[in-house]
Amino acid sequence: MNQSPLVILFAAVLTNNIVFSGFLGMCSFIALSKRIDTAIGMGLAVTFVSTFTTALNWLIYHYILKTGALYKLTGIEGLDGEIFTLIVFIAVIAAFVQIVELAIARISQSLYQALGIFLPLITVNCAILGVSLFMVIRGYGFLASIAFGFGSGIGWLLAIFLMAGIRQKLRFSKISPSLEGIGITMITTGILAMIFMVFNGMVRMN
Amino acid sequence: MSDSGIKAFVITMIVAGVCATTLGTTHHLVKNRIKRNQFIAESRALLSVLGFKNLSADELEGILKTSVRKTQRKTGVFWETGTGKGSIYAVPMKGRGLWGPVEGFLSLNHDLTVIKDFMITKQEETPGLGAEIESEAFYRRIRGRKVRTSASSNEVIFKIARGKAANNNEIDGITGATESCRGTQEMVISAIKRALEMKNVQN
Amino acid sequence: MSRIKTILTNGIWYENPIFHQVLGVCSALAVTTQVKNAIVMSIAVICITALTNFTVSVLRKIIPFSVRLIIEMLIISTFVIVFDQLLKAYYFEMSRELGPYVGLIITNCIILGRSEAFALREGPGLSVIDGIASGLGYTLILVSIAAVRELFGAGKLLGYSIISNPDYHARGLASAGGAFIVMGILIWIMNAIRRVGGEK
């Protein structure tokens, strides 16, 4: 099933938003959506990491891990890397994050100040691992996977940006004390998710 | 590299080695069971649309061998059971819904004018809405639908309405799941067309 | 004995991982359309948290600080994949329903959070209890959300039909948005109960 990468990109941002329909990346979504600037910083970091790790994981999965690929590569029968998929994906993500962190620290101190603190959190951001897993399950091609990784990152950025905007305003509203914090954040997310359902039908995702 | 660096590296490698061995062993132990489960799930759906319901796992294989004929063609694959006017054809369906791929099996009567049975085996639609395409209530609406006016007609009539069916040519859709229904409709039509093509080659 | 009691009550109620520490929310929502799925997912999280806590605690003296995250991730991933394989082999239907969300337990922050906060410091016995307690806290929330969504969204409970007339089903609850709102309200109720109970 070949779907144009552009359609996938669009769908990943709006109709299949990773937060609102996939429930992924929620922990940092809630923890870091208190202020717009931190939200944008984390959103950009997630977009960056998810785009590149999806591409890397696609290559690794299709040339090494997939059932049959290892046989083609080495010529030894009976080798199957499929079971290591999860563990390799998470290792790639962790290693990539580590390398990016080091690189940013060397290249630009100001960028490191802005993004550095978010990077370690990304390893356990399930959105990143989720994107890699969904890419395998839905059988995307290489370009489609990159579009999906990038689109999901942008979708996550959009979601956390909207949420942070709302939460900044919420501070001036009177809310029942028991509902403050996570409670009202969850309910607002729910309403946002329902709003995003309106985009359904604009594109169809495969 | 400092001593502590080497130690850290060695320990990580040991842990990784132990983990990999554990995984390899587990996979080796359950591999065949998983394959068999997949085979059973697939065969059960296929045999169910061919009219063999509620089979135990052990019966599946026997019936697949004795009562079902499988034909592989360039354009696809189909299965057949029974003879003459009592024969039933089954074809696999592949399509897309709102969230992702939808797959299933469809069976038709001997001259491919009526849908015998319909079953979804894979879908990721919204639970409670689109996911209802995988429910007995929805299957019941599709079973027995006449999809061609005559055995010679090439036109396939199959329409899932938005909400309640407006006339006899439509079947009731699922409110709030327009996309899943449209995907299902297209999937069914293309499966029937493929079956017609293959049948024509056969005759 | 009182130590064990504290760990249990903390994990389940006072420091419930989901609504107190906001950990592990992701998977909590996706699998809560049915109580059955929520229960299987909870069992997975309880087992994996307990086992990971145990392993990390046993190894805590020899794990170098610099690579502890990687080692913890390796251990968690191994247990998750083993569970996933066992599910596929012995409960195939359920593994189809849960789909990729079993694999995503790896990034469930509860597990990493507990091994960081507890298992690296305490002995294996207590760590197992802590793992189970946090897992039970997770179960409490997961099953409550699933019960509300399944009962009012689809009119069923554990698959048995309770409200059979589909006109009374609140379909919105089954959608993603509904999940967030049910969870928000649940947190509201729980916080209110705590307030009445006189806690801060």
**Which structural class do you get from the secondary structure elements of chain A?**
mainly alpha
Low-confidence stretches of chain C: none
Distance between the termini of chain C: 26 Å
Give the tally of structural domains of chain A: 1
Number of strands of chain A: 0
- The ordered H/E elements of chain A are HHHHHHHHHH
Q: Pairing-aware structural class of the strands and helices of chain C?
A: mainly alpha
Order of helices and strands of chain C: HHHHHHHEEH
Q: What is the count of DSSP helices of chain C, taking H or I runs of 4+ residues?
A: 8
Counted by DSSP, the helix tally of chain A is: 10
What separation lies between the terminal Cα atoms of chain A? 7 Å
- The mean pLDDT of chain A is 82
Show the largest interface: A-C, 44 and 48 residues
Compute the CA-based radius of gyration of chain C.
18 Å
**Could you say which overall geometry of chain C the principal axes of the C-alpha atoms support?**
globular
For this entry, give a set of tags.
heterotrimer, A: 206 residues, 10 helices, B: 203 residues, alpha+beta, 2 domains, two-stranded parallel ribbon, 4 helices
SSE layout and pairing:
The complex is a heterotrimer of chains A (206), B (203) and C (200).
Chain A: H1 5-13, H2 26-31, H3 36-65, H4 69-74, H5 85-107, H6 109-115, H7 119-123, H8 126-137, H9 142-170, H10 182-196
Chain B: H1 3-49, H2 57-66, E1 68-73, E2 76-81, E3 88-96, E4 101-108, E5 115-122, H3 136-142, E6 159-160, E7 170-171, H4 178-202
Helix pairs in contact in B: 1-2
Chain C: H1 2-14, H2 25-30, H3 35-59, H4 68-90, H5 92-98, H6 109-119, H7 124-154, E1 156-157, E2 160-161, H8 176-196
Antiparallel strand pairs in C: 1-2
Helix pairs in contact in C: 1-7, 3-4, 3-6, 3-7, 4-5, 6-7, 7-8
Describe, in short, the structure shown.
The complex is a heterotrimer of chains A (206), B (203) and C (200). Chain A is mainly α.
Folded structure, characterized:
- The complex is a heterotrimer of chains A (206), B (203) and C (200).
- Chain A is mainly alpha-helical and 206 residues long.
- Helix content of chain A is 69%, strand content 0%.
- The model of chain A has no long low-confidence stretch (mean pLDDT 82).
- Chain B folds into two domains: 1-66, no CATH class; 70-202.
- Helix content of chain B is 44%, strand content 20%.
- Chain B is built from four helices and seven strands.
- In chain B, the strands form two sheets. In chain B, strands 1-2-3-4-5 form a five-stranded antiparallel β-sheet, with helices on both faces. Chain B has a two-stranded parallel sheet with strand order 6-7.
- In chain B, strand 1 (68-73) and strand 2 form a beta hairpin.
- Chain C has 200 residues and is mostly helical.
- The two termini of chain C are 26 Å apart.
- Chain C contains eight helices and two strands, in the order H-H-H-H-H-H-H-E-E-H.
- Chain C has helices spanning 2-14, 25-30, 35-59, 68-90, 92-98, 109-119, 124-154, 176-196; strands at residues 156-157, 160-161.
- In chain C, strands 1-2 form a two-stranded antiparallel ribbon.
- Chain C has one domain (2-196).
- In chain C, helix 3 packs across helix 4 and helix 3 packs parallel to helix 6 (109-119).
- Chains in contact: A-B, A-C, B-C.
